[in-house]
Every structure is written in structure tokens, then in C-alpha cells.
Write a structure and sequence with these properties.
about 450 residues; alpha/beta; six-stranded parallel beta sheet; 20 helices; 10 strands; globular; binds iron/sulfur cluster
Amino acid sequence: MRSAVSRAASKAVEKRNRTAGEYPYWQTMREQAHAVKRRVMENLDDFLLQFEEKCRENGIRVHWAQDAEEARETVGTIAAEHGVKQVVKSKSLTTEEIGLNRYLQKNQIEVTETDLGEYIVQLLDQIPSHLTAPALHLDRKDIGRVFHEKLGVDYTEEPAELLAIARQKLRKKMLNADMGITGVNFAIADSGCLCVVENEANARLSLGVPDVHVAVMGIEKIIPSFSELDTFLKLLPASATGQKQTVYVDVVGGPLFPAIGEGARNVHVIILDNGRSRILADPQLRETLFCIRCGACLNICPVYRQIGGHAYGWVYMGPIGACLIPQYNGISAGRHAPFISSLCGACAQQCPVQISIPHHLTRLRYDVAKQGYTAWWERYALKLHAFLCRYPLLYRALTWFPGKLQQLLPGDMRFPAPGYTRDRALGRFDSKGFRRRFLKMQRQQDL
Ligand code: SF4
């Protein structure tokens, strides 16, 4: 897993950097996007109401959902209304967030993910391990094995053959589906349109082939008008996959347009809160709602590259996931997430909407500590450290001591560190101590 993630992430960073470098005004676009998101968040209620009104004018049925349960039930009611038995879905983390697949299956509705990566993780009964590349943790041999075991086809690791197998299976599902469910990348307030960007045409088919289309969007997906869309349509693909443009940009402005004959006959949009208003209420942390889910911060993150997306334990992962998990799930349940970061700042440099991720992580760490969710021994260790820092002589003696003590012990004996040493060896203390080594390095630099 580690090598598959690291390899894929490095390639994505390389492509992203190359494409961003081709835009002489890249930084200006980032600033514009940040300003748009700030304006939207500061006036979100007005934009949402405008969006609702325009959608209704366009013939799109609007539903509001306070939480995951309400959103799931709304989908269930729409499905019952239209006698839906089979659903195709196109990549939508928001529907992962509300656990929609399990709900539909429990209600005897067959649901199939149509994005290739999502389809693979669905076969494995896993959640995506990346925001834009759900099966990033698997290489083609893994995928060959999954198809062989779950679909009963001959083993192959040839990408073209794997693709042909998936395409054949998904085509049937697509043609038989009664309902298509998609996410929304950008919801355009002044015209009541839904924009979905993608590369595989699975979203276009999901929202166009079945009779019913349900789009599930978080309240933060709003942008004011088509004028701002241009900037986001450059920033998102470049940051996500290093493309200058995605292959498909789908815009839904209402149900089937008879003159053209394209689209679903019934279009519904579910506008989901699920904790976002709470995040919005915090003037600092609301910036984490600016995220356009490009995944660039994941690709560059040295921690994500080592542990992969599943280690975060929820649908949002990587640096932005580490910010969102405690905010959506509560500080108690998400107390570990803000600490899954080296705080190196690379994520903030990559982020196309300039979210100061390390800043928010330190704030969330503070909240975790302030509310008493850190381990007791950690609190005492830090208190001890603070005490020792006030007495430099004592501090130096104590940092000198472990190295010297270690010299008296057998060569291969390691200091026990429960938990840490379960899966790896703890290195030996440096016999010189940090301070002496640091002073020596400083002297060498001064020469
Ligand atoms: S925080 Fe920024 S870099 Fe990370 S996924 Fe969101 S928009 Fe992309």
C-alpha cells in the first residue's frame, strides 16, 4: 500500500507542479478563488436562498437536509416516489459522508458506483482512500485480483483489459438504472445550475440516462455566478490531476430539455448541512469549508504518503481531512486527527484556494488539549518538559544522562517504548546529546 500511494502521489505532484507552472497567473487565480470562497461563506444564507429560488424556477426540486439521516431519508422518499430499484452513482464524497450506499442497500435498492476507482473500492467493501483517486492504494495487480475474485473473470493486470471489464459491467448497470445520484462540484447561485466535473463520463451518464437525477451537495459548494466558474475550472483539474481541463464539464440547469432530448425527467437537489453551519460559525475554522476537494494537499503530505487514506478512519483524509474530522464528528471522536500531520506546511503551499491548513491544525490541537482529550501521561510529560525548560542546568544534565547510561548497556539493547516499538525499532540515544550536537553544527556553519 505504501509504495502504491507514494508512487501515485509523487506522480500527481509532479503533474500538478508542471501544469501550475504553465499558468503565469496561477497565484492570482488562487487569490481570486480564496476571495470568492470568503465572500460566499460570509453571505452564505443569501447565496443559498438565491440558489434555491433559481433552481425552483428551472424546475429542479430542492430539498434541505439538516443532517445525514434527513439526507438519506430524502433520497429514500424520492426513490419510493419513483419506484426506484436500481441506482447508479457517480463519485460523491458527500454521499459517502452520509453513508448512503448502506441505507439504499438496506432498503432493497441496488446501488452501483460508476467511477472506476469507486467501483473497485465498492467491490472490496472499502471506503475511498483519496479524495479524487479512490483506489489510489491499489496497484493494477491488486485490481486484477479484485476483478478475478469478485467478478469471476480471468485474472489480468493489463489496464486496457481491466478497463474493458469494468466498462462492460457498468454499461449494463447504467442502462437499467432508474435513478442516478451524483455530487456537485459547484452550485451556481444566480442561475440555479449544478456543475459536475469529471473525466470518465460516468457522471454525465448517471445524471442523463436514468429518469431521475438526485444531486447531493454540501452547503459550501455555492459559487456566485458563471463568471467565477472559470477560475475554479482551471484550479481544480490542475491541482487534482495536473490536467489543464477535465474531459467533461457537466452543467445541469433543469430536467430534460425537450428540444435537445438530454437529461433526466426529474431533477432533485439535496442541500446538506450536517455540521457545516457549526464550522461556518467559527470565523477562523470556516476557512476549511473553502476546500474544493482537489486532493493536492494529500499528494504532497509526507504523512499521508506513508499511511494512506484509510488510516484517517473517515471519508475525508489527508491534511484537510485532519481538519474536518474533529469538526464534523466532534472533538472527542476526532481528537487524534489534528495530530496526523508534520505541520511542514507543504499542504498550504499546494492548496488552490489557499487554506492555511497547518494553522487550523494547531488551533484544533489546542481545542483538543483545552477540552482535556489528550492522554494523562502526555499532559504530565509536557508539564515536566515545561518545568525542565525553566532550569537549563538540570535540563542539560538530564539530556546528557540517557546517552551515557546507554553506553553501559549491551549494544543491541533498546529502550522500551510501548506502542511505538511494537512495529518498529526505537533508535539509540545519541551519546553526545542534542545540545552538544546542535552547538557543534552551528559552529561549523559559522566557519
Ligand atoms: S484543502 Fe486545498 S489542497 Fe486540500 S483538497 Fe481542499 S482544496 Fe485541495
